[in-house]
């Protein structure tokens, strides 16, 4: 039987791994303001994808702090897109914790009979050591919403990157969960740093070389990687060579393990509610 774990370790350089180990004891366990959190779950080796997965990636710029904030309108636009497109998975960046639960409710209403689930991980505030906060006081970070329930006994894995920009008070984070599709599918999201390209590359290598390396295929990821489209050398050097991917022509990317092929990809106009469009990607079984 072929081992389909696709550990993707080759993307990390020896120098980066030494730096990552020095900055973070352990691998994909991660830490947040409340201490250690479980590492990403695994799925059985040799899983085959039985159906397509439609993933909607959105950076909603809803902190209330950034210049792109549109008064909360991005959540209404995201809700409208979810109702219209009924995706299987939604990956979210730059959202408040309450936004994730609100959009989980929207997906539940849009897909009759769905057993929805969600996960959230806040960025960390360098100055306080606590969760980074939206203007409304809620934790700010990344979220996942799924039309499928989470796999029993497989809690969401999440954490803070060991590589950060010391000049940026927002310390970037990742979150993953395992959902009961057929077969179970791992899903992750993240929003990488934009202030220092070396930091961004270090976080990307940690994401694929350590976090994703601890998960088994099939796996999909949506996020704002801040590395340009997959025509660019930086993103190509970070994504595993055996992965499949689609992007919005700018910084948002959907990537998946080789059980999938990209069957369709398109951007969705959020009508000025965010400085990013939605990115809807259909991943079909190979």
From TrEMBL:
Q: Does the keyword Signal apply?
A: yes
Output the SUPFAM superfamilies linked to this UniProt entry.
DNase I-like
> What InterPro entries does the database record attribute to this sequence?
Endo/exonu/phosph_ase_sf, Endo/exonuclease/phosphatase
Instruction: Answer whether the UniProt record assigns the keyword Signal to this protein.
Output: yes
Keywords in UniProt for this one?
Answer: Signal
Q: Which Pfam families match?
A: Exo_endo_phos (PF03372)
Which region is the signal sequence? 1-33
Q: Which residues form a coiled coil?
A: none
Residues forming the Endonuclease/exonuclease/phosphatase domain are 74-235
Can you say what this protein is called?
Endonuclease/exonuclease/phosphatase domain-containing protein
Organism of derivation: Pseudonocardia adelaidensis
Q: Which lineage is the organism of this entry classified under, starting from the top rank? A: Bacteria, Bacillati, Actinomycetota, Actinomycetes, Pseudonocardiales
């Amino acid at each position: 039987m072929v081992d389909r774990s696709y550990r993707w370790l080759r993307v990390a350089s020896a120098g980066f791994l030494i730096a990552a180990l020095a900055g973070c004891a352990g691998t994909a366990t991660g830490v947040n303001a409340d201490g250690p959190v479980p590492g990403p779950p695994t799925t059985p080796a040799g899983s085959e994808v039985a159906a397509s997965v439609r993933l909607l990636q959105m950076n909603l710029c809803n902190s209330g702090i950034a210049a792109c904030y549109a008064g909360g309108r991005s959540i209404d636009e995201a809700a409208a897109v979810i109702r219209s497109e009924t995706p299987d998975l939604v990956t979210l960046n730059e959202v408040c914790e309450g936004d994730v639960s609100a959009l989980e409710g929207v997906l539940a209403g849009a897909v009759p009979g769905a057993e929805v689930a969600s996960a959230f991980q806040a960025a960390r505030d360098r100055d306080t050591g606590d969760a980074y906060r939206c203007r409304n006081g809620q934790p700010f970070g990344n979220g996942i919403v799924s039309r499928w329930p989470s796999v029993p006994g497989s809690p969401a894995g999440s954490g803070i990157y060991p590589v950060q920009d010391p000049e940026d008070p927002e310390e970037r984070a990742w979150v993953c969960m395992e959902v009961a599709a057929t077969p179970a599918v791992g899903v992750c999201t993240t929003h990488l740093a934009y202030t220092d390209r070396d930091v961004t590359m270090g976080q990307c290598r940690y994401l694929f070389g350590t976090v994703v390396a601890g998960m088994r295929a099939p796996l999909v990821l949506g996020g704002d990687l801040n590395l340009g489209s997959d025509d660019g050398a930086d993103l190509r050097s970070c994504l595993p060579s055996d992965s499949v991917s689609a992007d919005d022509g700018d910084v948002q990317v959907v990537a998946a393990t080789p059980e999938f092929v990209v069957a369709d990809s398109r951007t969705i106009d959020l009508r000025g509610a965010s400085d990013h469009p939605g990115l809807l990607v259909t991943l079909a079984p190979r």
